[in-house]
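Design request, tokens follow.
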């Protein structure tokens, strides 16, 4: 009877790190898919917005500002990451680095037409 408890404990210890392994494998598969397809379309679009003001909508902003939208200026972007400068309501300027995969939506302000 004691052996059954020890076996159950060992099985529990073996599978406790299983979700972490799955996440690692998902990241590796995603990297391979983006390499094979030649990069993500979002990273190409965001690289064209360098130096422009925009609003990024992502769940990661909830940790920083308490809002799902972040008004910022895009400083730099590559295939996986985006660097942006943000100003909060108090006027504090922060530079943040976000994963492009976590960005749900990019909103551009209406610019006046060129005459």
């Amino acid at each position: 009877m004691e052996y059954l408890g020890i076996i159950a404990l060992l099985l529990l210890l073996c599978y406790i790190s299983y979700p972490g392994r799955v996440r690692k494998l998902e990241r590796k598969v995603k990297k391979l898919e983006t390499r094979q397809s030649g990069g993500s379309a979002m990273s190409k679009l965001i690289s064209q917005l360098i130096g422009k003001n925009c609003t990024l909508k992502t769940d990661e902003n909830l940790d920083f500002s308490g809002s799902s939208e972040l008004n910022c200026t895009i400083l730099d972007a590559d295939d996986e990451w985006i660097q942006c400068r943000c100003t909060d309501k108090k006027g504090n300027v922060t530079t943040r680095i976000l994963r492009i995969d976590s960005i749900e939506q990019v909103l551009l302000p209406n610019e006046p037409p060129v005459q």
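Comment from the thread starter after seeing the answer: thanks! Residues 18-37 form the longest helix (20 residues).
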